[in-house]
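Q: Give me the 3D complex with zinc ion.
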Amino acid sequence: MRRYVLALILVSILLAFYSEAAVIRRGGASKLISLTFDDGPTFGVTDKILNILKREKIKATFFVIGRKIEKNNLIIKRMADEGHEIGNHTYYHSRLTEINDKKFLAELRRTSDLIISHANEVDNLFRPPHGHLPAKKQKLIAKEKYRTVLWTVSADDYLRQKKGMRTADSIANRVVAQTRRGSIILMHDNSREIVAALPQMIKRLKAKGYKFATVSELMRVKTSRAGCYQVNAKTKKI
Ligand SMILES: [Zn+2]
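A: Here is the predicted complex, encoded as structure tokens.
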């Protein structure tokens, strides 16, 4: 009986490792890091972020919402023209825990088609809204040939609505303090605070010797599974 239980535990661990291996959370041991922006494109925010990235000669990865592309298709073309990577963040920003497989696949494909129609190609990267990733959906994502990308550092810029919680300075301080080699940094290009925080954040990260790359470029460097991000980690004000 004891042997049977041990075997069962071993199999569970192996299965967990196998399914986790398909999820990208961070890069390798070099000083290469990735800036990623979710929930756009947003007129008046994404274009300003693109201006900053152009000035700083940085290529980033944007996880776009299909519904928002319909209104901002020129920004998608600009992202592609300027060498940024464009990933899929569903059409309606649906929680994967709340929609069935059929609806999820429809959202994934509709968004992908929209990206292709404006950028001519699609980078097969997917980021689940709210970081929710049920195992069953993860298999589906892999079957559709997408690589799932999570993150190691959250700018927590989306908490701006809570009075006084997020300012440009606090966002930059938090990101700079938490960034390590291979970090994938989560931000949102629907937040004006991130536009204000970005220049000083980049300046301080460059001063620490970090270099910037898209997620795909980051993954070409040797990968590491250490330091996984906790989806439900408590938010700390830094
Ligand atoms: Zn999102």
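A quick observation: The beta strands are 23-24, 32-38, 61-64, 85-88, 125-126, 147-149, 153-154, 184-188, 211-212.
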